[in-house]
Amino acid sequence: MSVTVRVPAKVNVQLAVGAARPDGFHGLANVFLAVGLYDEVTVTAADELRITCTGPDAGQVPLDRTNLAARAALVLAGRYGREADVHLHIAKDIPVAGGMAGGSADGAGALLACDALWGTGASREELLDICAELGSDVPFSLVGGAALGTGRGEQLTELEVGGTFHWVFAMASRGLSTPAVFREFDRLGEGRDIPEPVASRDLLDALAKGDADALAATVSNDLQPAALSLFPELADTLAAGRAAGALATLVSGSGPTTAFLARDAEGAEAVAGALRASGTCRAVRTASGPVPGATVV
Ligand code: C5P
Q: Is the dihedral of CA 74, 97, 177, 188 positive or negative?
């Protein structure tokens, strides 16, 4: 018997970052939008825990117990006093170490799939609690749609979205480590007063209206200077997207994937074509959102 769960990637349309907290995490006002690029996690009963992965970036995915999918299976099994005796297969389409919550997607997917396979009957609250234990972005991978994440990003308030937003994503030639980007944020901000992170009212209104121009005027990412400092070539990709007519350009989360907002699907294809021709990135994809979170298929 096996269960397959499909989980979307995310883009942060706003990522406001506060000062480092005593626990090392940063307070965030993090506006997530789930977009239609997906990983699929299939869980099959087996003699012992095993992970396999296929897809363009599969070679970069750890196949040991550090993989968030394995950790999700182990945490759920631990809570229900059983063995995590499953084969986890990840069909990976979300870029690895790209700032699009690919690892978080696999954690949320494995959790939902194991829960269904084992029939644990865990409540939604309990699953969200385990997601928060696994990582700051994992609860959003379960919930999907659009949400404001506060705390370290794990406390979610779901948001209304009045339309579909069309995006282009440019994958970079290498990954960026999220902790390294936050450390660079701290280094760049040394000696400066870092304000409390707050969600932008104008941005939430733009999402609620489904207004791409208004959203373009309000997107922001406080980690972008840190990502650019560690990966200066990303500025060329952003410039190529801007020149191609993207309404807004930004680094997705901690990067290095760059995100480009278009007015419609046609506009997204035009920006995607120009980015492919620019030679400033490894691969280009289009995707729209919001889309639902982790779903059993
Ligand atoms: O929560 P998660 O495991 O995804 O976080 C990965 C790393 O990113 C953390 O160890 C921390 O260095 C950094 N981080 C942070 N503040 C957050 C979220 C993540 O500093 N709110």
A: negative
Q: What residues line ligand 1, using a CB cutoff of 6 Å?
A: 25-26, 28, 135-137, 152-153, 178-179, 182
Residue ranges and CATH numbers for the domains of the chain are 2-159 (3.30.230.10), 165-289 (3.30.70.890)
Q: Measured between alpha carbons, how far is 295 from 297 in angstroms, rounded to an integer?
A: 6
What are the pLDDT tens digits along the chain (297 aa)? 899 999 999 999 999 999 999 999 999 999 999 999 999 999 999 999 999 999 999 999 999 999 999 999 999 999 999 999 999 999 999 998 899 999 999 999 999 999 999 999 999 999 999 999 999 999 999 999 999 999 999 999 999 999 999 999 999 999 999 999 999 999 999 999 999 999 999 999 999 999 999 999 999 999 999 999 999 999 999 999 999 999 999 999 999 999 999 999 999 999 999 999 999 999 999 999 999 999 999
**Both tokens of residue 188?**
């760049």
What is the CA(179)–ligand 1 centre distance, in A?
6
